[in-house]
Amino acid sequence: MEKRALKLSVNGQEYEVFIHPKTLLVEVIRDHLGFTGTKRGCETVSCGACTVLVNGASVKSCSVLAVQVEGMEVTTVEGLEQDGKLSPIQKAFLDNGSYQCGFCTPGMLMSATAFLKENEGREVTEHEIREGIEGNICRCTGYNSIVRAIDAVAKGTYKEE
Amino acid sequence: MINDFNYLKPGSVKEAFEMYAEHDDCKVICGGQSLLIVMRQGMVAPEYLLDIKGLDELRYIKYDEKDGLRIGATTTHREIEKSPIIQEKYPVLSLMETKLASIQTRNWGTIGGNLAHADPAGDPAPVLIALNANIKVGGKNGERTMPLEDFFKDYFETALEKGELVLEVHVPVPPAKTSVAYQKFNLLDSDMGIVAVAASITLNGDDTCKDARIVLGNAAPIPKRVKNAEELLKGKKFDEKLFEEVGRISYEESEPVADIHASEEHRRHLLSVLTKRMIKKAWEQARAVA
Amino acid sequence: MSTEIKELKYSTFKTNIKYSVINTKVHNVDGIAKVTGRAQYTFDIKLPGMLYGKILRSPHPHARIINIDTTRAMELPGVKAVVTGKDTLGIKQGIWRRYEELCDEQILPLEKVRYIGEPVAAVAAVTEEIAEQALDLIDVEYEVLPAVFEPLDAIKKDAPVIHEGVERNVNVTRHIEWGDVDEAFAEAEKNGGYIREDWFRCSGQHHMCMETRAAVSSYTPEGKLTVWASTQSAYYTQALIAGVLGMREGDVRVIATYVGGGFGGKFELDAAMFCSAVLSKKLCKPVKIVFTREEDMIASKRRTPMYYYVRTAMSRDGQLLARESRMFSNGGAYTGMGATALYLSGFFHSFPYKWKAYRYDGYRVYTNTMPSTSMRGFGAPQAMFCSEQQIEWMCADLGLDPYEVRRKNAHTECYEVPGQAFIQSCGMTECIDKIEQWAKSKGDLGPNRAIGISSCGFMSGGIFNWFDSPYSFSSAVVTINIDGTVELHVGCQDIGQGSNTTMAIIAAETLGVKVEDIKVHSGDTDHCPADLGAWGSRQTLMAGNAVKMACEDAKRQLLEFAYAEMGLNIVYDLDIKDRWVHVIARPERGMKYEDLVRKAIRAKDGQRIVGRGYYTPHRKGMISPAYSYMMQAVDAEIDPETGKIKVHEIMTAHDCGQPINPLGLVGQLEGAASMALGYAYLEDLPMDEGKLLNPNLVDYKVIRAPEMPKTGMIDIETYEAEGPYGAKEAGEGLTNPTAAALGNAIFHALGIQMKELPLTPERILRALREKKEKEANK
What is the secondary structure of chain A as a DSSP string? Predict the structure, then answer.
């Protein structure tokens, strides 16, 4: 039950935290490092509000022990913008009204980001986009505006600045 | 709240065996996608947690035309789903994976963890049993291999002895003219199945059934073979009436438990429908393979 | 209806004004905060020295509290306080403040618990974990009482008494009647009309806001309390907390800048707000309480489950003659907002048709289950499920065209619902026409697949003041800074529906500036005027009118100065558009808005330009100042072997007056469709002896992206004289038609009549079996 030091990189910055081994990744991100963009909405790994990228792959950070990501690269919603410039998917969310209350939005953006990266350079179907975000619940939008935003980025409507 | 535990992180499989043997009241975590939920509910509260997620020795997908497919225990669901060789040689495995929970869970969760968790509603087991897979387990005192079918003992209970880990899944090369189909019934695409059916059909040259394997998911405490139905199919020709009859056997032999999502009767009914459909689908697919 | 009248209507009502901002695509004013993770919700608030609270909940559906011993819990290191009903003296509260008997909920009860999950004690500790451990150390002695869970059982003579003195557990009744119903039925019978009666059962539904109920309370030694709350009405929260703590409203500040969803479930006082405030006041430390998903599901509130008996008379040619309905709702343990749902369900059950004779008797019955309350649609989705299916079946029984029957009986503009409401704008007929065209253009859909329709209407702002607010329903203050930027202070609450953006659009349009010139301040009772908040589809119309009035006030002050500055003949009219102040007849003649502001402020002795506006409905009937209308079509396919439903498409023709924010409108339509579709075939709250069986997001199913069908909208534009720029509600009413339309699709696809929600595969297969048996017996 001893606390241990954990080194990880979040949004390109190295951090060291001192934690109980039972600490979840989402707790390190939110409570220890203060990246409150990442949310939590359930206790059953269902809602996806806590989705972040670990070494580029999307995971639900409430389902991962923080000690398991020792030395890995974590990306949260705060890591999507670069020097104040929004990423293409963030811009597409604005243009398509792909959020309402905004609570699921950070997790949704991370799933969308991972999906777009994995499918870079290939044409994606609407159904693939839907499956790409099926781990994320949005109670407000009905998803279709999110699907349109991802589709627009996949079609190259938005360019990285 | 997760109860406190001591964290053990082995650097190798050998070390994992030793650590596991040394510590009583020790639970193994790999992807932890199911384990952390029950730990949070306080249902599992071990003194030690042995983390094998980082054991890359067990993270592989190997294929050999004679030996078949070998998947290491710490391989993630997503790696199986995306593996070109699996997509080519065992497409049903890949398809099954695309419907297993969400991408996030597949990215972190592992095949070994899934099988060791032994949830009767788990997706991989029925498909792998239909594929005649074996499982390799091992500990400090050595390794052993058994048909995956014999691995499951009861709800969330397996043949793993104290100190043993799941090491590998082995899927033999399927016989000629064989195909496997799998479907689960659920209301949300990403849900576990209310029930599920995997069916493997091997055909003779004259389009009669040479061999069949039918496995029901979430129809009993463990994945359930319907051997009477398999026998009935052997030697028979493609016949929708026969498939109905086979579905009826699934209906009768299954032992599903009612819950808020479906009554026992409804589950049996769904099993009969899916059995019929999967046999037909596997049969049609088998005709097309070499 | 002849074409001339339609054209006349359009020429009378539709304005030809070209708007600069209204109905153009703009980004939400809080968009960047939300897509970058900067938006701070109550869930994210962390204050120095903050403690964490946890709530101990009743395991019994009905029990007397004999004793609560907190000694052991207090001894746990890290525990700072434990409070129970003794600390709060069992103060009863409720949102129906005008009616003392309906303020029946003690959030920490003194004498007894009435549902599983009801709070009995709250702990504050230095960590959440210690607070949770302390819960196990509180010893509560209960005397378990007999309990009752269903309204039709609870209303029986010998049922357990849930609230002392409440006979047969009937919490509230509501009678709505016009015309001579008995005579109309008698006459229908005499004339060979068709009379049909059905019983329906409508399930509950959980709001399932992604942010669970959460509050951070901080009481400081000067006697002031600040509460960050996930609420739909900062003002209601402020007033209710002040009430229960015996403080002055002005000494309580409620902050709700970002709220992670509401849907009708977050404007009563909840246990997170109440317990954190009580603990904080006791300790003079900030206390944070966040519900787990399970707590949120078992012990917040839900859409009201309803049993409906519906009897309808229709002439052989499709004239609706009379209806009488009785409804028994499962009120759960307390009143909450449920009393309003009882009324609205009965009222909208008549919509959108011109009944000559109509009678509704609603009974809200207490049971030992979690309280039911308002939820998006406010009783109307249940009412429409019953009404619109029965009408469809009657059309089929009589061989009548369901579109024609609906058209024949539909509300039209300037119609009075006898004694209840006056309808001004109404595009119902056009909605029916458009959906009929769309559905017919789809052609044959193949086996086991069909389109089902449902029409309905909804209020555009409830005229209800059971809260007894002494303030205007909505207020706004607009301040223009020296550089022309605008501070807009509103009391309306943005819970994600985008009211801040709607208000910014209305302000920019009225002042003649751009949306980026407007800074919206909302969700803070210290700085914003009081407003009833986000419920009853009221903000676009009510807060919108207040904003428009405030901006007109400010603009008038600017233009007064402009007249003098420009030396104009007083017969000329001035206006501002796109930051250009100009003579309307000669738009090129004018001056820059920024220059005008700078000069005007100088001329006002250095005072910033301030405009005020407010809105309270007067002489607008019993329900609402205006009504939205719609018809929805659901294209669904059912697997007749498994009962599984696949929804292919949802198309809605929608009259919401003048759309203000087109992006927001589509969002409301799609969001409502997903929530209403969930209600129709997925979402349910099954209980066993009052215990919820699916208190998590694994077993409680909500629509996810792959299940969500294609959606389309046909906008029927009308102009609503009572709304700002002709606007009406859009968003809540859209939840009403979907369950009925899906039910009707199933009816046409498989020939079965579904009388129970949700429309599960098992129920569908059972209905199919019964149909086959019936046919075999014939």
Answer: ---EEEEEEETTEEEEEEE-TT-BHHHIIIIIS--TTS----SSS-S-TTEEEETTEEEETTSSBGGGGTT-EEE-GGGSSBTTBPPHHHHHHHHHT--SS-SSHHHHHHHHHHHHHHTTTS---HHHHHHHTTT---SSS-SHHHHHHHHHHHTT-S---
Does residue C355 register a pLDDT over 90? yes
Residue B133 sits in the same domain as residue B195: no
CB contact under 8 A, C696 and A44: yes
User: In Å, how far from its chain's centre is CA C466?
Assistant: 16
Residues C710-733 have pLDDT tens digits of 999 999 989 999 999 999 999 899
CATH topology of domain C379-383+394-462+623-777: Aldehyde Oxidoreductase; domain 4 (3.30.365)
Looking at the partner chain, which of B1, B188, B260 has a beta carbon nearest the beta carbon of C707?
B188
Transcribe C441-462 into DSSP letters. Answer: HT----TTEEEEEEEEEEESS-
Average pLDDT across each block of 10 residues of chain B; the chain has 290 residues. List them in order.
95 98 97 95 95 98 97 98 98 97 98 97 98 98 97 97 97 97 96 97 97 98 97 97 98 97 98 98 93
Shortest CB distance from A100 goes to which of C41, C671, C696? Answer: C671
Q: Subunits touching A (CB < 8 Å, at least 3 pairs)?
A: B, C
Is the same domain home to B60 and B166? Answer: yes
CB contact under 8 A, A97 and C43: no
Per-domain residue ranges of chain A: 4-78, 88-154
What's domain A88-154's architecture? Orthogonal Bundle (1.10)
Torsion from C-alpha of C545, C551, C554, C556, nearest 10 degrees: -80
**Site from A91, A140, A147 to mutate, C interface, most C CB atoms within 10 angstroms:** A140
User: So what's the pLDDT on residue C622?
Assistant: 85
Q: Does A117 touch chain B (CB under 8 A)?
A: no
- Cβ of C36 within 8 Å of Cβ of A39? The answer is no
pLDDT of residue C614: 98
Residue with tokens 């009853």: C536
Q: Which DSSP helix (H) or strand (E) runs through C606?
A: none
For residue C682, the chain B residues in CB contact (below 8 A) are: 187-188
The CATH number assigned to the domain holding B110 equals: 3.30.465.10
CATH number of the domain at A4-78, please?
3.10.20.30
List of chain A residues whose C-beta atoms are within 8 Å of the C-beta of residue B117: none
Range of the domain at B41: 6-51
Quote the CA–CA distance of A104 and A67 in Å, as a whole number.
Answer: 25
Q: What is the CATH number of the domain that holds B21?
A: 3.30.43.10
Whether domain C42-147+207-299 has CATH 3.90.1170.50: yes
> Is there a single domain that holds both residue B141 and residue B215?
no
Cα C606 to chain centroid, rounded: 43
- CB contact residues (below 8 A), chain B span 269-288, against chain C: 269-270, 273
Angle at C434 between CA C428 and CA C438, to 5 degrees: 145
Q: Which residues of chain A lie closer than 8 angstroms to C738, CB-CB?
A: none
Q: Which residues of C touch B273 (CB under 8 A)?
A: 641-642
Hey, what CATH topology would domain C17-39+473-615 get?
A: Aldehyde Oxidoreductase; domain 4 (3.30.365)
Chain B contact partners (≥3 CB pairs within 8 A)? A, C
Q: What is the number of domains present in chain B? A: 3
Determine the pLDDT at residue C2: 32
pLDDT, position C477: 98
Q: Is the ipTM of this complex over 0.90?
A: yes
Flag residues of chain A having pLDDT under 70.
Answer: 1, 161
- The answer to whether the Cβ–Cβ distance between A20 and B4 falls below 8 Å is yes
- Those residues whose C-beta lies under 8 Å from the C-beta of residue C90, and which sit 6 or more positions away, are C106, C108, C109, C110, C111
- Give B-chain residues touching A112 at CB under 8 angstroms: none
